[in-house]
Amino acid sequence: MNAVYNFTAGPAILPKDVLIQAQAELLDYKGTGMSIMEQSHRDKEYEALHHEAAANIRKLLSISDDYAVLFLQGGASHQFAMVPMNLLAPGQTADYAASGAWASKAISEAKTIGKVNVAADCGKDRPTRVPAVNELKLTPGAAYFHFTSNETISGAQWKVLPTSEAPMIADMSSDILSRPLNVSDFGLIYAGAQKNLGPSGVTIVIIRKDLAARAPENLPSILKYATHLENDSLYNTPPCFSIYLVALVTRWVMAKGGVAAIETINEEKASRLYKAIDATEFYRGAAAKEYRSSMNVTFNLPSEELESKFAKEATAAGLKGLKGHRSVGGIRASIYNAFPIEGVDALVAFMKDFEKKNG
Ligand SMILES: Cc1ncc(COP(=O)(O)O)c(C=O)c1O
After folding, report:
1. Does 195 participate in catalysis according to the annotation?
2. pLDDT tens digits for 174-183?
3. Mean of the pLDDT values across residues 78-104?
4. How is domain 258-358 classified at the CATH fold level?
5. Catalytic residue flag (residue 289)
6. pLDDT tens digits, residue range 121-170?
């Protein structure tokens, strides 16, 4: 097999060591004679992994006992609806920061449930960005304030995290575990696993326990955070294999030295790539400099034709998944935790060569 660097935005690259271990354990998990996929979610082998995955996330983010770590399904998109269903009572207002495509989806879903105040809107700004903390017009007594910590499509990221009096809720699908975080500043954090935590199929929700009690009585059980909290995310059959991989990925992050150590590597990877973009007029960063994402590096070439050629030739050279999201075009290099720095260097070399031939 030829070496390939996977720049896909998600489902995304997983640590090679994790895949090797999963492969080794696939047919016979720890001498049980069965795959972990084939075992009951009530068996002790699976339960140990289930608890380890949550415990690892707790440890990596220093999460206190005031919070629960839940494993849910339906992706981050399901959280766009579940958050307001549980936490936005009639007569209340929820504040949302509009920063791009994913925040907009969260806002649309919340509007189907209750009253939304858009606290700042820079979703259509070019170069792309997220709001500055001092732009936010928050509602006194709001049910909560929601923001998207990293806009995966536009490549804009909150570098300074906001604060709010109302419980703060963040969609961290594309930057969770990429940098240290003070969980106690938040009411709820959610993230689809398929970028920094594991494969698709499981969504991590970190919720302050008192908030789980706020859901309206008549909400179906499956949609209430309290149900999943009370049942330790085993109310119904969980996505066992995905959670098994979350356990392995979080073990890998710990072996790397934890989130602060990972952040240092992430910053180095991103800075090498942005440096290459800024070195020439041929490439243009899509996000405003102060808001450039460390996870999704977006840029443009002088024409759409050149962008298509770039993505095509990069694929042929083993640099896969660089085509920008279909809604915005351009080039996007997703360099999540598991993405190796050698892959960034390979892309930088390819960029220089491509410019030489086409600039
Ligand atoms: C920031 C962000 N939020 C939400 C989603 C939607 O996630 P899912 O497909 O798991 O519903 C994505 C998917 O890429 C994302 O990047």
Report:
1. yes
2. 999 999 999 9
3. 98
4. Aspartate Aminotransferase, domain 1 (3.90.1150)
5. no
6. 999 999 999 999 999 999 999 999 999 999 999 999 999 999 999 999 99
Terminal-to-terminal C-alpha distance of the chain: 32
Burial state string for 152-181 with b = 16 or more CB within 10 A and e = fewer than 16: bbbbbbbeeebebebbbbbbbbbbbbbbeb
Boundaries of every domain in the chain? 17-255, 258-358
The finding on whether 350 has its CB within 6 A of some atom of ligand 1 is no
Regarding the beta carbon of 76 and ligand 1, being less than 6 Å apart is answered yes
Inter-helix orientation angle 44-60/240-255, to 10° = 40
CATH number assigned to the domain covering 17-255: 3.40.640.10
Nearest to 124 by CA among 156, 149, 96, 147: 156
Tell which one of 174, 189, 293, 332 to mutate to probe ligand 1, the residue whose CB is within 8 A of the most ligand atoms: 174
Residues 6+ apart with CB under 8 A from 122: 98, 99, 129, 130, 131, 135
CA-based radius of gyration for the chain? 21
How far apart, in whole angstroms, are the C-alpha atoms of residue 73 and residue 256? 28
Q: Is 99 in the pocket of ligand 1 (CB under 6 A)?
A: no
Task: Give the span between the Cα atoms of 151 and 138, in whole angstroms.
Answer: 21
Alpha-carbon separation of residue 350 from 8, 171, 339, 356 (angstroms): 17, 33, 17, 10
Is residue 171 part of the annotated active site? The answer reads yes
CA–centroid distance, 172 to ligand 1, in Å, is 9
**Whole-angstrom distance, CA of residue 80 vs CA of residue 83:** 6
Measure the CA–CA gap between 332 and 318, rounded to whole angstroms: 15
What's the token pair of residue 288?
A: 């405003």
Ligand 1 centroid, distance to 355 Cα (angstroms): 33
Residue whose structure tokens are 């989806």: 105
Joined tokens for residue 272: 């090498």
Please check whether residue 320 is in contact with residue 4, taking contact to mean a CB–CB distance below 8 angstroms.
yes
Q: Which two tokens stand for residue 281?
A: 């007029």
Closest atom of ligand 1 relative to the 77 alpha carbon: 11
